[in-house]
Amino acid sequence: MKKKVLIIEDEKQIARFLQLEFEHEGYIVAIEYNGHSGLKNALENNYDLIILDIMLPGLNGIEVLKKIRETSDMPVIMLTAKDEVKDKVTGLDTGADDYLTKPFSIEELFARVRAALRKKGKINPDILQYNDIVMDLLKYEVIRDGKVIELTKKEFDLLKYLILNKNIVLSREQILENVWGYNYFGETNVVDVYIRYLRSKIDDPFDKKLIQTVRGVGYTLRDENNET
Q1: How far apart are CA 55 and CA 59, in angstroms?
Q2: DNA-binding region spans which residues (predicted)?
Q3: What is the C-alpha separation between 40 and 32, in angstroms, rounded?
Q4: Which residues pair with 4 in a beta bridge?
Q5: pLDDT tens, 161-217?
Q6: Mean pLDDT, the chain, integer
Q7: Alpha-carbon distance 225 to 131, whole Å?
Q8: How far is the first Cα of the chain from the last one, in angstroms, to the nearest whole number?
Q9: Number of other residues whose CB lies within 10 A of the CB of residue 193
Q10: What is the domain partition of the chain in residue ranges?
Q11: Does domain 4-119 have CATH number 3.40.50.300?
């Protein structure tokens, strides 16, 4: 099941950027642009995580967080343009799970998001997800867009390796070593063959293609329609 994120951020360009990045990672995203509407949305809906700017019109982020913490322990990561220690201390003392100062790297934000979700027990380490693909490592089950995809063990292992290295271009040698093992002495084109098998099940039946070929290099798992 996809995680739901509420972004409370009055700078619309930043809010839109965060929305695209979170949706690219498979989250369901809602946006509010001021403290009052953000607080109302947060209290009326069940979100897995809130990204909360400290400088908001209406109610500021600290006030919003105080109200949220009266009834909920949902993970909250605060954002601010300020880099003052007192703001960080106030946010954390009020109940924020983490704190990032603008500008920040999206990779760092997602690392903190994962840490916050793990802390609250909202990430299952046996579930991998990318875009609309969900892998259950214990059940050996793959679901894309709500449909169960039947994979062989090797296809499953290949998809797992691609998801764990999403948006990274992997050479055939890297895939061969990590999926088939260092001692594999079979056909050298086995990676291409299994990528083709996997595409026929994971990509071909769907409009959005996720397994990309980088000519002369190898393969990567990314959304060609939502590159950043």
Answers
A1: 9
A2: 125-223
A3: 10
A4: 28
A5: 999 898 899 999 899 989 998 777 777 689 999 999 999 999 999 999 999 999 999
A6: 88
A7: 12
A8: 24
A9: 10
A10: 4-119, 127-221
A11: no
| Residue that is written with structure tokens 């590159």 in the block | 227
CA 219/CA 129 separation, integer angstroms = 18
Q: What single-letter amino acid sits at 213?
A: T
pLDDT for position 228: 36
- Cα gap 169→164, rounded to integer Å: 12
Q: Which CATH number fits domain 127-221: 1.10.10.10, 1.20.1050.10, 1.50.10.20, 1.10.645.10?
A: 1.10.10.10
Q: How open is the CA angle 35-7-64, to the nearest 5 degrees?
A: 30
Q: pLDDT confidence of 12, banded at 50, 70, 90?
A: very high
- pLDDT tens for each residue of 59-103: 999 999 999 988 888 899 999 876 665 666 676 778 888 888 888
Note the pTM of the prediction, 2 decimals: 0.57
